[in-house]
């Protein structure tokens, strides 16, 4: 199986300070990868590079062997905050990211996405009328609307309470089962990383590279209290301390 996303020898500096050094990672089709590491080590910077938001770096980032040099539909990004357009209702926020090829099926596809994230009844609401969890579900639907081959998630649940965070984690897995996107996620939550991911990539202090890769060889759905996950959690804590 050929890799869908390839990050080869990527280094990045800001104002003379090196953030990433010789970062290498390959991600297979439909794989879910979590990035864990100390605060400020460059996890979110790496996502920006993969999204094409910052083309100034050393090394190559490719999706299906095509270099990423600018933002494009092959890569979608969900931020820490929903970043919804306040003047658009839920339906139109989701529709904003649609691919041109969906022009003739726009209404049907948006309705499918809203049903997928459980927001059919909220389609006419404005962002100010939504709870935090609802707003993040809209942001997730909008990220999917472009039908990206790679979906990047930058700590998308960090601002939510524990109950809503777990609900959205399960929603992400449902969407993954239905659409099979390749996902690369930044998180500080070890349990979240182990619950969602096929592999957890541990970054070191900056300038960051890959320090360790831990495979989670458990079928989905997973039991959050599974003994194997508890053992891997202890291993990750050792790596991160």
A few lines on this structure:
By secondary structure, the chain is an alpha/beta fold. It has 7 helices and 10 strands. Helices cover 32% and strands 24% of the residues.
Give your account of this protein's structure.
This protein is α/β, with parallel strands linked by helices and 241 residues long. The protein has two domains: 5-74 and 148-240, 3-Layer(aba) Sandwich (Rossmann fold); 84-145, no CATH class. It contains seven helices and ten strands. The protein has helices at residues 43-50, 90-95, 106-116, 132-145, 162-179, 190-196, 227-240; strands at residues 5-14, 17-27, 32-36, 58-63, 66-67, 75-78, 150-154, 182-186, 199-203, 210-215. The strands form two sheets. The chain has a six-stranded mixed β-sheet, with helices on both faces. The protein has a four-stranded antiparallel β-sheet with strand order 2-1-4-5, covered by helices on one side. Helix 5 (162-179) links the parallel strand 7 and strand 8 (182-186). Helix 3 packs across helix 4 (132-145) and helix 6 crosses helix 7 (227-240). The protein starts with a strand and ends with a helix.
CATH class of the largest domain: Alpha Beta
CATH topology of the largest domain: Rossmann fold
The main sheet orders its strands as 6-7-8-3-9-10
Overall 3D geometry?
A: globular
Beta-strand proportion: 15-25%
> SSE order, as H and E?
EEEHEEEHHHEHEHEEH
For the terminal residues, how far apart are their CA atoms? 35 Å
Instruction: Give the fraction of residues assigned to helices.
Output: 25-40%
What's the architecture of the largest domain in CATH terms?
A: 3-Layer(aba) Sandwich
Q: What's the number of helices? A: 7
Tally of structural domains? 2
Radius of gyration: 18 Å
Unreliable residue stretches: none
What about the largest sheet? 6 strands, mixed
What is the average per-residue confidence, as pLDDT, rounded to a whole number? 93
Specify the CATH homologous superfamily of the largest domain.
P-loop containing nucleotide triphosphate hydrolases
Which structural class matches the secondary elements? alpha/beta
DSSP strand tally: 10
């Amino acid at each position: 199986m050929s890799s869908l996303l390839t990050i080869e020898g990527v280094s990045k500096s800001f104002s003379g300070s090196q953030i990433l050094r010789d970062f290498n990672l390959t991600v297979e089709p439909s794989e879910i990868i979590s990035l864990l590491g100390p605060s400020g080590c460059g996890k979110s910077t790496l996502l920006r590079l993969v999204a094409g938001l910052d083309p100034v770096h050393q090394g190559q980032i490719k999706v299906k062997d095509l270099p990423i040099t600018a933002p494009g539909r092959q890569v979608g990004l969900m931020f820490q905050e929903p970043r919804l357009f306040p003047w658009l209702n839920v339906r139109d926020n989701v529709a904003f990211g649609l691919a041109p090829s969906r022009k003739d099926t726009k209404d049907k596809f948006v309705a499918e996405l809203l049903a997928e994230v459980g927001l059919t009844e909220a389609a006419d609401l404005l962002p100010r009328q939504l709870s935090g969890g609802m707003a993040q579900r809209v942001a997730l639907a909008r990220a999917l609307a472009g039908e990206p081959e790679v979906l990047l998630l930058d700590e998308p649940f960090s601002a939510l309470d524990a109950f809503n965070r777990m609900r959205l984690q399960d929603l992400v897995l449902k969407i993954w089962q239905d659409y099979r996107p390749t996902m690369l996620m930044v998180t500080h939550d070890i349990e979240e990383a182990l619950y969602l991911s096929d592999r957890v990539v541990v970054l070191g202090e900056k300038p960051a590279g890959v320090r360790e890769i831990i495979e989670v060889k458990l079928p989905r759905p997973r039991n959050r209290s599974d003994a194997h996950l508890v053992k891997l959690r202890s291993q990750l804590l050792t790596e991160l301390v």
